[in-house]
Amino acid sequence: MAYRNARRRFGPKTRERQSRHLLLFAVAISALEATSYTALPPLLPRLVAEQQLTGTEAGVLVAAYPAGTLLAALPAAMLATRFGCRRTAVSGLVLLTAAFAVFPLMHTIHPLVAVRGAQGVGVVVAWAATLAWITSAAEVQRRGQRIGIVIGAGFVGAMIGPLLGALAAELRPGPIFALLAVVSATLAAGSPRAEEPPAARSDRAALRDASRNSEVLASAALLATIGVVAGLLAVAGPLRLADQGVGALAIGVIFFGASGLQALLAPAVGRLSDRRGWTLPATISTCLGGGALLLVPLSHAPLASLLIIGVAHAAVLSLWTPAILSISAGMRAERVSQAYGAGGINAVWAVGAIFGAAALPALGLSSTRDATYVVGSMLLLLVLAALVGVRSRRPATT
Questions:
Q1: Global pTM?
Q2: Based on the domain organization, do 136 and 258 belong to the same domain?
Q3: DSSP 314
């Protein structure tokens, strides 16, 4: 009722202006999230040398960010449901600002890990609240396009992050993290005043119903699979290419190019989802990615391997928009708060990414083992088959 009353208070022009402000805010949050995540790897060698970190300590530092994201995913959803998306997003940005500001001041492993973990917590709190906000606020006929724009901004951030990390390594970390802190604080101060999502179920019964919803479960499996395969490609892909004599620059260019391509294509994928439903782009991307993964073991020419792995990586990344739309549709079907869907997205992706980066290559025992790519391909195709099967039994909605 409060939501309907709010809509009466604001005219169409005001709502449209607020909607644009919310979209810009979500775009900025998405880019900042990806930037903060990808800025550390180029800086890591300098931190290892300056702080005399062991290999294990360096690994713990890298894992601190996704660990914070995983641990805070459900609490972030609870906060957004209880206190509202805007307050929760601003709270996450305040924490993120503080964590950015103090990170360069840390000089031993334990404070570094704690602050990096706090960055992960702040990001997931802000991101989950904002994603739930824009998913609920967007009109049904434009929801896919808006989610695609937001996801595309994340890919832009994924390209900016390594550049900032490299600058921090070559110059000093202080100014770079101060810049990130200023951006985060500016977003907190300029958060939109758009209408909050309508009240939705958020009790234990609602979560139990959502966890039993076949579409939600299949969508979660797809999100986890994206993390698994992306993690596999991030580890095994570069090592296989290096074994074939491909240089670091060429490897970097192909992964950088895949992210850039998705930054451009994500809005188009969203528009296609609005017109034809998300199952069509999901099917195209999964078949393309799964087929490319099957071709990796058959390719022994460096250029062919480079192109095939690049196609596989781009195809997997393009699944983000359909996956978010599918889990959002499942949450709406159960009338459960979108905040829990956004929190679940972060959690299942983090688990999948950890498994793909560590477990699958270990199962193959070597980066050149063909089994890891076959497993990744089969996971993609099986999860898509399950998801399309579930979707075919539901009314067609975005």
A1: 0.79
A2: no
A3: H
